[in-house]
Amino acid sequence: xxxxxxxxxxxxxxxxxxxxxxxxxxxxxxxxxxxxxxxxxxxxxxxxxxxxxxxxxxxxxxxxxxxxxxxxxxxxxxxxxxxxxxxxxxxxxxxxxxxxxxxxxxxxxxxxxxxxxxxxxxxxxxxxxxxxxxxxxxxxxxxxxxxxxxxxxxxxxxxxxxxxxxxxxxxxxxxxxxxxxxxxxxxxxxxxxxxxxxxxxxxxxxxxxxxxxxxxxxxxxxxxxxxxxxxxxxxxxxxxxxxxxxxxxxxxxxxxxxxxxxxxxxxx
Length: 268
Fold this sequence. Notes:
Blueprint: H1 19-22, H2 28-45, E1 51-55, H3 69-85, E2 96-99, H4 105-115, E3 120-125, E4 142-145, H5 148-158, E5 159-164, H6 169-183, E6 192-196, H7 198-204, H8 207-212, E7 225-227, H9 230-244
Parallel strand pairs: 1-2, 1-5, 2-3, 3-4, 5-6, 6-7
């Protein structure tokens, strides 16, 4: 009979290296927090203070279809915006073009900023179709998200302005979320919102009907502007950004906007 004790038991991996645990429902909070902390670390390391977000359809492709001009114009607008914003680069980068990271209008925006030699952000998300990172995103600023709400957090809380090109359900979802934050004054900042393509947007969305039925206030129509060419869109962005955003409301980088808490009016 062998009375020798075994040398030791099998050592389990520490929790943060336990892939089975990290992929389990019990670790969901860790995965969510990771989609805050990892982008935050990259934005800080790349000295990106704030962004201008471009939304629009993944299905609008260069040289294809009746809406193809919007690809070209998104690219031009992102380029001239980046060239204008370069004057504010000092210890940090201001008004960096940010997109959802995929093809179509998203690609055009990143491509235009890339044409101008600027940094550009892509907030990609894994979908069953369409959504793969485009090649024009600054590699250190290309992110992959699992949770839509964490991706939306980074869209909303770093953006000082928003340009919305024609798009479908995803674009409408993103637009309405940002309009709601602006309408309710939940964010402690003024955000310039430009709807690009007046004819498209006035056919797709009847804002005047919402006023007529009392669903929004007449003043809510002042939350956004329309533009139909890159130059007029840039003028709207420059006016809003120089009026409301040249002095960041927080000294940190990235400059995550404060949320307004009715029980704590100074923000949180």
